[in-house]
Amino acid sequence: MSLFDITPESAGDSKRPLADRLRPERLEDFVGQEHILGPGKPLRRQIETDTLGSIILWGPPGVGKTTLARLIAKLTRCQFIPFSAVLSGIKEIKVVMADAGKYRRMGHRTIVFIDEIHRFNKAQQDAFLPYVERGVIILIGATTENPSFEVIAALLSRSKVYALRLLTVPEIVTLLKRGLQDLHVEASEDLLEQIAIHANGDGRAAYNTLEAAAAASPEGRLTAQAIEDSLQRKVLLYDKAGEEHYNLISALHKSVRSSDVDAALYWLSRMLEAGEDRMYIARRLVRMAIEDISLADPRALEQSIAAMQAVHFLGIPEGDLALAQAAIYLAVAPKSDAAYRAMSAVKDDVENSMAEPVPMHLRNAPTAAMKQWGYGAGYQHAHNFEDAVTDMECLPPALIGKQYYLPTSHGLEKRIAERMEEIRKARAARKEPS
Fold first, then answer.
1. Residue 263 belongs to what H/E stretch?
2. Is the pLDDT of residue 1 over 60?
3. Of 24, 225, 254, 328, which one has the greatest count of Cβ atoms within 10 A?
4. Percentage above 70 pLDDT, the chain
């Protein structure tokens, strides 16, 4: 199955984007959104029984909002009028409504699809109200923004909001396999999964990557290099001052990390005598405080920031003493790279796994509609519990149980580790049945 299947009229149009060419002709070919389109689910029942009213499709880019609106129009045999909130105003709305009125007098129903409805201002949204109320049109709005904030209350109360979810990796792989057929290329399952992971739930982004990678694979088989090139996001850096510049700062950094005060002062002095930019050195000392000392001694960051400010305030040569003082402090401070390793582990998970939606119990619910949709349900306010510790899970479901930060036994981190163990035990005790 594919979110976008090949339509007869578009199958030969190779100039159109892959995502546009591969749109489904049947509801059964629509991949994803099983929570509203699965057998017996609300939106599917409305489509199959032809009882659909005005709806708002709310979800991230590339999950099928436009495709679903087109499918609904086809399956319910309605006239379909697409309407862009970016390009249209009140004048265009009146013209479209006049056309819808003509269709209605001819016995035809009209679906007006408004892409990016959140871009319409209040007056423009108000213009649709009489036509929605009289049943002249069925309005389908698509938005990536929370309709509670972006759609006027009067229109929201006359529409059913359906929240669309990010596509899963297997769902996107399914789409990509249909894309392979259209592009006449082959690819391993592993490579398709890599594209799916990087697409981050966006079917259109996955198709765009596949199309670009296929164009760079002339042998008819997708290569890892072609995919890597298509996903490239890095900005190449240039060498501003030659190799020795980096050799010296590397020596200073490694001396501080190794708690060698004398070596740190030596390499610092070499850089100062060579005329190195003092603010560059100050910035690197700040980095050392964060990367190599961190919470083992939080004052290391304070000292390095103070040195940076002193250098800026005093200039040369007085400011050089502030740099020396900071280098000494950092060298003798207890060391920990636990926070650095924790962030590296988190980054790996963020880059190589799906960006799951925020769990409902962690979302804020400032409006009544959001509360009705389940925002904030099950949230445990820490201050209502003894020692401000709950048993509530705050990670996404796929990452529950992960521990990124593993404090050392150096300096303050020893006390942090002890406190984390106390919290762990308290959480475990709360989870035990009474």
1. helix 261-273
2. no
3. 24
4. 92
The CB density around residue 23, as the number of other CB atoms within 10 Å, is 20
**pLDDT greater than 60 at residue 46:** yes
The residues, any chain, with a CB within 8 Å of residue 57's CB and separated by 6 or more, are: 65, 68, 69, 140, 141, 142, 143, 162, 164
Task: Report the greatest alpha carbon distance in the chain.
Answer: 91
First to last CA, the chain: 48
328: tokens are 């000494």
Q: Return the H-helix or E-strand segment holding 55.
A: strand 55-58
Nearest to 134 by CA among 97, 163, 161: 97
> Is the alpha carbon torsion for 205, 206, 211, 215 positive or negative?
positive
- Mean pLDDT, the chain, integer: 86
Kindly report the backbone phi and psi dihedral angles of residue 5, in degrees, each rounded to the nearest multiple of 5, phi listed first.
-95, 170
Contact 194, 223 (CB under 8 A): no
User: Interhelix angle for 278-288 vs 261-273, to 10°?
Assistant: 160
Give counts: helices (H), strands (E), the chain: 21, 5
**Three-state DSSP class for 221?**
strand
In 63-193, DSSP assigns E strands to 79-84, 110-115, 138-143, 160-163
Closest CA to 36 of 57, 20, 54: 57
pLDDT per residue as tens digits for the range 134-171: 878 889 999 988 898 889 999 999 999 999 999 988 99
Rounded to an integer, what distance in angstroms lies between the CA atom of residue 172 and that of residue 197? 9
Q: Is 84 helix (H, G, I), strand (E, B) or coil?
A: strand
Residue partners of 409: CB distance under 8 A and separation at least 6: 417
Identify the H or E element spanning 169.
Answer: helix 169-183
Q: Give the separation between CA 202 and CA 198, rounded to whole angstroms.
A: 9
Residue 237 has pLDDT above 60, yes or no: no
**pTM, full prediction:** 0.70
